[in-house]
Amino acid sequence: MSAGFVLDLHRCVGCGACVLACRIENGRETTAAWRRVLPLNLRRYDAGPTYFLSVACHHCDEPACLQGCPSGAYEKRPDGIVVHVEDRCLGCRYCEMTCPFGTPQFDAGRGVMSKCHLCAPRVDDGRAPACVATCPTGALQYAADVDNAQVRPFVPGFADPAGCRPNLRFRTPAGSTRAARFDALEERLRT
Amino acid sequence: MPALRTVRTVCPRNCYCTCGMLVTVDERDRIVAIEGDPENSATGGHVCLKGLSYARRQTYPDRLLTPLLRRGDGADFEPVSWDAALDEIAERLGRVREIHGPAAALYYEGSGSHGALGGLAMAFWRQFGGCTTTYGDLCWPAGLEATRLTYGANLHNHPRLTVESRFIILWGHNPAETNVHQWRLILDAQARGATLVVIDPRRTDSTDAADVHLRPRPGTDAALALGLARAIVDAHLHDTAFLAAHAHGFEAYRARLADYPIAKVAEITGVDEAAIRTLAISYGRTKPALLIAGFGLQRHTHAGQAMRAVALLPALTANVGVAGGGWQYANLASHCLQPLPLPPEPPAMRGIPVSQLAGHLESLEAPPVRAAWIERGNPAVQHPAAPRVRAALSALDFLVVVDQFLTPTAKLAHVVLPAKTLFEEEDLVTAYWHPYLQWRARLFDPPGEVKPESEIWRVMCERFGYDTRWFPSDRRAWLKGLLPAAQQDAIDELPSRPLDLSGHGDVAFEDRRFPTPSGRVEFECAEAAARWGVDAVPSYAPIDEGHTGAHKARFPLQFLSCKTRDRIHSQFGNLDWVQGVERPHVVDIHPSDAEPRGVGDGARVAVWNDRGRIELVARVTPGIRPGVVHVLEGWCHEGDPDVNALTAEGLTDMNHGATFYECLVEVTAV
């Protein structure tokens, strides 16, 4: 069981409110954002749906950042949240190389890494992460146990090449044109 | 924990949502959270990325904090004191009035920030002896007038009732990008089983979520609406009881439908005949059905007639006055404020249509416009024929611009005055989607030398020796006086929650009383004919710069410049946070148009016509109708395409609107 995010790909319009909410909450005025929105198929080719992947840290079951860190600056909490402990960070940027998702960001001004902590202080306080609380369409959700969600573990644009077992899941409601396009894609991948 | 305070306020932008916001500030006046106000049941406790970006904008390094003065053409701006700026203004504005008279000064206010206090500028200009102002609107007036003529008022159901709809048509509307809170309600309705139909020449984030997507040629919506009506009536799906009781001129309208057989409508619109019939029958049979029109389909010459044709469909099917149904265009229920107390209007007031600013600046006589004051707007890039606007502004003897940033318009000014943000002055803000009047709170003192516009006009009056009693000494008391006479106590409640003071209730026209001359829904409208010289019954006429236009041989492509989610026109995109999530400003072109022009995906192309030329990157996509090209509008930073180099200064048939989407172009590889 692990905490993580569930993203409804029918509801997400890639607006970026989650990115800005994260910046405000986590005080990152000028450096790279912890959360990003990756648009897929903006050309709207008929081969598949157009959708948006709002991604931050996936709080993996097998976190490559943690495994590759020489100074023990990463910890996985019992609830699954992977946190970066800044006062143990050397700024060696190994995690930047080992994380297949490009999640840890180097803060050049302070010479340390940083990344999404799933708003652990808010979660501990019983509140949703800032990105989730802000999402205007309700597309981005927090799950204390992502495996319980009725969801797809995989969509094109999101892979797990290093066996990290990321805790991000996707929802595409049946019946919509977009869901049909996802189904067609999956069918193609199977055959 | 540091001491935090949370203040309720409202986003005053020219946007559907007008979100109630809860802004949390720490003891050092830093914004630590911006959240939606759950008391606003339309926006449902959410804000969008633009609202969140205020946390960055409030202290953005580029913000103007002092008056700037440019001594002589080509000189750089230098920061000056208010005294120096006012000296310059008094001297040069005074000289223009002396030589040419007061109407040689243009006062231009854009839609950049809504609030009642903005109207105080007139306390100065009326004492100045008059001025030239603008009338009409760049955005939406034809649809407003069409709705008023049809139903008697611009009202619609409370947004939260959207979820009760079983059938939703979005016509020329893309709320997934332009009204994200409405989009949530539409998705909720869809999750409860509603069918979603989107009518748009483009594929958008809204069309991609739809069950049905029709792609008419731009400018043919009147024909499509009349064709749908014809198919509804042919199938006997019109509501004869409703029409007998509440329609005016239905027989004349029905006779008009004889001119629109479905095959002909299919040919005009480029929409498949079967698709028109299927939509008509589904819409006619499924109740309640909600028809939501955007502003896009009324940005051409025959816009008012097109909007009348579309607006009648809900009445034809008796979807008016019911929860989950209705006609949604604009909801002016919150526009209940009384006129500002102002000095009497002098005779030298003169009006020009805002949509034809360049033409009037170029040609007005007796007197010509020789000076201008521009606030809350950016006409140098956002107006049709923008290069001509820039040339005309550059040729003025004197230009003052009030803004938070050095916009393309501000760069042309002789004096730039630093504007407040939404957090720096109390005000009352109306909306045009939900019915709420909202209180805009003052969270901070204006930084540096910034003065709110109302304060600028007060010091201008002082400098010119005018009466300043029109200006509030106590803003709250002054704003209270603007509330409807019987509801002025609401001033105490407004800071804590949004209020619907209209008394209209959540379902518009629930009593089926329509404030039109006939008291009924006007299928035939004598006022439309008398006031605007159009046919009393809606009809379709092809636009000059449309798919059958005379210029089609040279400029075969219809050009659209639509809105997206990360900007309100030229606002927000200057911020680094917003640039991090912005959409690419490319030209969308269909493969069947790109291939014969030798244009590949990602190629640099020129989009041009006799009015202008822009260069940008092509995105070859099936997501646009063949024969149509599209570029996102809104000039926010270097590299953004100057789309209004291409657009023309036309006027809509009703209410002095602009015709941004009536624009033929050619695309050439460069």
Please describe the topology of this protein.
The complex is a heterodimer of chains A (191) and B (670).
Chain A: E1 4-8, H1 17-26, E2 36-40, E3 51-55, H2 64-67, E4 74-76, E5 82-84, H3 94-98, E6 105-107, E7 112-114, H4 120-124, H5 130-134, E8 140-143, E9 168-171, H6 177-190
Parallel strand pairs in A: 1-9
Antiparallel strand pairs in A: 1-8, 2-3, 4-5, 6-7
Chain B: E1 5-10, E2 20-25, E3 31-36, H1 49-52, H2 54-57, E4 68-70, E5 77-79, H3 82-100, E6 105-109, H4 121-128, E7 132-135, H5 141-151, E8 167-171, H6 175-178, H7 180-191, E9 195-199, H8 205-208, E10 212-214, H9 221-234, H10 240-246, E11 247-248, H11 250-257, H12 262-269, H13 273-285, E12 289-293, H14 303-316, E13 326-328, E14 350-353, H15 357-363, E15 371-375, H16 379-382, H17 386-394, E16 398-403, E17 415-418, E18 427-429, E19 438-440, H18 453-464, H19 475-480, E20 521-522, H20 526-532, E21 557-560, H21 576-579, E22 587-589, H22 591-594, E23 604-608, E24 613-620, E25 628-630, E26 664-669
Parallel strand pairs in B: 6-15, 7-14, 8-9, 8-12, 9-10, 11-20, 12-13, 15-16, 16-17, 21-25, 22-24
Antiparallel strand pairs in B: 1-2, 2-3, 4-5, 4-17, 18-19, 21-26, 23-24, 23-26
What would your notes on this structure say?
The complex is a heterodimer of chains A (191) and B (670). Chain A has helices at 17-26, 64-67, 94-98, 120-124, 130-134, 177-190; strands at 4-8, 36-40, 51-55, 74-76, 82-84, 105-107, 112-114, 140-143, 168-171. Chain A is of the alpha+beta class and 191 residues long. Chain A has one domain (4-190): Alpha-Beta Plaits (2-Layer Sandwich). Chain A has a 3-stranded mixed sheet with strand order 8-1-9. Chain A has a two-stranded antiparallel sheet with strand order 2-3. A two-stranded antiparallel sheet of chain A has the order 4-5. The longest helix of chain A has 14 residues, at 177-190. The two termini of chain A are 31 Å apart. The model of chain A has no long low-confidence stretch (mean pLDDT 91). Chain B is α/β, with parallel strands linked by helices and 670 residues long. Chain B has 4 domains: 5-57, Phosphorylase Kinase, domain 1, CATH 3.30.200; 68-138 and 357-492, 3-Layer(aba) Sandwich (Rossmann fold); 141-329 and 512-532, Dimethylsulfoxide Reductase, domain 2 (3-Layer(aba) Sandwich), CATH 3.40.228; 550-669, Barwin-like endoglucanases (Beta Barrel). Chain B contains 22 helices and 26 strands. A 6-stranded mixed sheet of chain B has the order 5-4-17-16-15-6, covered by helices on one side. A 6-stranded mixed sheet of chain B has the order 22-24-23-26-21-25. In chain B, strand 18 and strand 19 (438-440) form a beta hairpin. The model of chain B has no long low-confidence stretch (mean pLDDT 97). Classes of the chains: A alpha+beta (191), B alpha/beta (670). The A-B interface holds A 10-11, 13-17, 19-21, 23-25, 29-30, 33, 37, 42-46, 49-50, 130, 133-138, 173, 176-178 and B 31-36, 46-49, 52-53, 55-56, 176-177, 180-181, 183-184, 187, 190-191, 203, 205, 208-211, 565-566, 576-578, 580-581, 584, 601, 619-623.
